Amino acid sequence: MKTATKKDGHIHTAFCPHGTKDAISDYIEQAILLGFTEISFTEHAPLPAGFIDSTPTKDSSIALEDLPHYVHMVEQAKDYYKNKIKINIGLEVDYIEGFEQEIKSFLNEWGPKLDDSILSVHFLKNNMNYDCVDYSPELFANMISQYGSAEAIYERYFETIKKSVFADLGPFKPKRIGHITLVHKFQKKFPVSKDYRSTIIQLLKDIKQQQLELDYNGAGLYKPFCQESYPPSWVALEAKKQQISLVYGSDAHQAKDIGQGFDMLLGNR
């Protein structure tokens, strides 16, 4: 697949508590060096009001008080580099079941300031609790004991992705669904007996119906227990058949990760 614009649509910054301290300019300079003509900074949005981060380190998102500074810094970079590269201001927004109204209110406030955002699922609702599906192998193992099997986690994950696709989050709902197979992050350590092909194909039909894009994420290729993109190539090919726009994303949390997996996913097709 060839694209007229070489875009990395999924980049984090030093505002991410679980990232690095690389400057925004470091990411931009690396992108320019690699020949990208467009990038989107998509920092993890503040978690919705009333939601408590269930990860042990509680570092899943930018702090709400830091959000204005983040937007201002990307705006400054956008202007400074305007003759070298197109820069989009965005967020990676967590879809969290049960907090749709809070997410909608946040997007109504901040959406007008954003150019390009992603809607992702990291947290699964389990009765009254929420579990982060991609935090660590140890936490995933704990989830298996709670849910009954890895398959049950997969099923819950894909159900939640479907809910995110159809959720009414207002006029500023992100137009791109993030890494729809993130649940595969630990698949080499916790294999499942089902491939979920029919479930994923139906998800693609839902994404097409809602006129959404798909994040084609290279980060999973470099995760030791995943070793495939999010989603894998067969899903990308099926998405192409359905005429769903695939937007490459490095999911970089440090400048050197810009472009990771690009040649394998998009650059040589």
Indicate the topology.
Layout: E1 7-11, H1 24-33, E2 38-44, H2 67-80, E3 86-94, H3 100-110, E4 118-120, E5 123-126, E6 129-132, H4 137-147, H5 150-166, E7 176-177, H6 197-209, E8 213-217, H7 233-241, E9 246-249, H8 262-267
Pfam family, one: PHP
Protein name: Histidinol-phosphatase
InterPro entries: Histidinol_P_phosphatase_HisJ (IPR010140), PHP_dom (IPR004013), Pol/histidinol_Pase-like (IPR016195)
Report on the structure:
- This protein has 269 residues and is α/β, with parallel strands linked by helices.
- It has a single domain, classed as Metal-dependent hydrolases (TIM Barrel, Alpha-Beta Barrel).
- Helices cover 34% and strands 16% of the residues.
- The chain contains eight helices and nine strands.
- The protein has helices spanning 24-33, 67-80, 100-110, 137-147, 150-166, 197-209, 233-241, 262-267; strands spanning 7-11, 38-44, 86-94, 118-120, 123-126, 129-132, 176-177, 213-217, 246-249.
- A seven-stranded parallel beta sheet has the order 1-2-3-4-7-8-9.
- Strand 2, helix 2 (67-80) and strand 3 form a beta-alpha-beta unit.
- Helix 5 (150-166) packs parallel to helix 6 (197-209).
- It is globular and about 55 Å long.
- 43% of the residues are buried.
- The model has no long low-confidence stretch (mean pLDDT 96).
- InterPro entries: Histidinol_P_phosphatase_HisJ, PHP_dom, Pol/histidinol_Pase-like.
